[in-house]
Design a protein that fits this description.
Layout: E1 4-5, H1 8-11, E2 21-24, H2 34-43, E3 48-51, H3 63-67, E4 71-76, H4 83-90, E5 95-98, H5 101-113, E6 117-120, E7 134-137, E8 140-146, E9 150-161, E10 166-167, H6 176-181, E11 183-194, E12 213-216, E13 230-232, E14 242-244
Parallel strand pairs: 1-12, 2-3, 2-9, 3-4, 4-5, 9-11, 11-12
Antiparallel strand pairs: 6-8, 7-8, 9-10, 13-14
Length: about 240
């Protein structure tokens, strides 16, 4: 089956509908599948439930779907960088399901592994545990968390091949690999497209069996950052005058 598509719109053709659940990879703005997010905006699909570690920032990443009010509910861990998100939530226009970050990651990973639920100590005795079953193991109370599985996962990878095998880079590896396993269909955008076999088997983070479609990012694709912090090198130290941290 041909997996490589010419652009994001083509890669998502026939997959989007109102009311669906979408997992969107990335950590902050690292590894965010922005081309695919833009194609979702252009599609006009609405009433979406989006599972993502965070909600991007205003006008960037998932922020553009908040601008168009296409998202009905967010299942996230951290949303503090997005003023639009806060405004819609406080106005009762957006539903939010907060998760401790580790719990969110495990809900996704377990979904990909076919595990329907699990118990964790995180959140016991807090609002996170309200209305959820609890159990005692070895004298300790645990709260049950249901796993997450989406209709569609969109991810960003550093490298991919024509068979859909993916390799991520650094912080972009935080949520993308587990999301790629936890959806009915996974679509990936990749910075570098290579022939099968060019990614060493030991370097494949997501096997191609999980990826149904992918596209190559254009040469001028811009990877955004949330903030840049620099420091001066000590006197006499080797290297450039300023470095990004």
């Amino acid at each position: 089956m041909r997996k490589v598509h010419k652009d994001a719109r083509d890669a998502l053709a026939g997959l989007l509908r109102d009311g669906m659940t979408i997992m969107s990879g990335g950590f902050g703005l690292c590894g965010v599948p922005s081309l695919l997010i833009e194609a979702i905006r252009e599609s006009g699909a609405k009433d979406l439930t989006v599972i993502s570690n965070n909600a991007g920032i205003d006008g960037v990443g998932l922020g553009i779907l908040l601008d168009t009010r296409q998202i009905r509910k967010m299942i996230s861990s951290y949303v503090g960088e997005n003023a639009t998100f806060a405004k819609q939530y406080l106005a009762g226009e957006l539903e939010i399901e907060f998760n401790p970050q580790g719990t969110l990651a495990e809900r996704i990973r377990s979904g990909g592994a076919g595990i329907p639920a699990f118990y964790t100590k995180t959140g016991v005795g807090t609002q996170i545990a309200e209305g959820k079953p609890t159990a005692v193991f070895d004298g300790e109370t645990y709260v049950m968390e249901k796993t997450l599985f989406a209709d569609l996962a969109i991810v960003h990878a550093y490298m991919g091949d024509h068979e859909g095998n993916l390799r991520y880079r650094k912080t972009a590896r935080n949520f993308n690999p587990i999301m790629a396993t936890a959806a009915k269909v996974t679509v990936a955008q990749v910075e570098h497209l290579v022939r099968p076999g060019e990614i060493d088997a030991d370097d494949i983070h997501t096997p191609g069996v999980f990826v149904k479609r992918l596209l190559l990012c254009p040469a001028d694709y811009e990877k955004r950052i949330e903030s840049r912090t620099v420091r001066k090198h000590p006197a006499g130290a080797a290297g450039p005058a300023n470095v990004s941290i």
